[in-house]
Design goal:
87 residues; mainly beta; 39% strand; OB fold (Dihydrolipoamide Acetyltransferase, E2P); 8% helix; homopentamer
């Protein structure tokens, strides 16, 4: 998984029915690695807020998180990193 | 998903029958992250226009979007980002 | 899909039986994006020539292109970009 | 697989039930290649300690490592590199 | 597939039983592209030697190469590039 910070909500009115009702969040990769700063959009079923640090699963594993293998998402938040977890 | 801007149509007369009739669009990654500027081609079943900002699913999730797991695409537009959505 | 230019044939006499008889081409990513210049090898079932611009599907989608899910390829040419298609 | 060094534990109290009880480790890519320094989080079923060098499988192969295809992880430690293995 | 040069063997005594008996090789991406120099570890069922140039399949396609979809590898050598193949 990637470690990322939640930047903002992403709003998309015209989208596939398969993603209707899904909460989409813009994330930025954190962690001090050379991939820091990359951005992506993930489905959030965990209830993360803007500014929180999260774990993100990519690829087919993201579909395991949303509980339906027919959902066309390649990124999903799987957990919120504890506030007192330093890294 | 990646956030991207639609750059142009891509025309390919000699292609696999599996992609016949599919609308192919050249996209450029946006969003202010360090991956900004990467380019890719995606199938568009949503009806995006040149200049619009879109969400793109990659890998096997792209095949979920096109509704047929035998289609050899690794990228598909899943939604158009609202014009008033700032990020 | 990536946009790429065909650089050359790749010859591999000692390879898995699963790839015997397959045409393998060295490709270089084009398109003006920040990923330009990356190189990869793809199976070509479309009949692309050296110097032509092609569309390449990656990952499990490449196996959809070669028509056999047991073939161990992660890249396949899915179409040749029209000569008069500017981008 | 990637070669990586174990940087630290990652603690996430609020996470999907599917990852409950799993040991999550922050890793940093090593090996002298140009991808050195990238960071990611992986499930550890091998028992790696902080500072040890490990092999990491990504994508759907990570789910093979955790023994349950429904677990939403895209990275898993598959082995610990021997201390006297120089590279 | 990536083109890579075999750098060395990788030894891992403490690893998943699923990889026991597998030959693991450290590879470095070659080919003159911008991804040159990235390093990864792959299963070798082809019999490549240190210094040889090889083709590497990534992701789920690597599991096709090792002939068992339950093996947690995301990289496998699929062929050795002929010595007189220039690129």
């Amino acid at each position: 998984m990637l470690t990322a910070k939640v930047v903002d909500n992403i709003w998309s009115t015209r989208k596939t029915d398969l993603l209707m009702g899904r909460k989409l969040m813009l994330l930025e990769v954190i962690g001090g690695g050379s991939n820091e700063g990359e951005r992506l959009v993930a489905v959030d079923d965990v209830g993360a807020g803007v500014g929180e640090r999260v774990l993100v699963a990519l690829g087919s594993s993201a579909r395991r998180m949303v509980g339906d293998d027919m959902i066309p998402t390649d990124a999903a938040i799987v957990g919120i990193i504890d506030e007192d977890c330093e890294f």
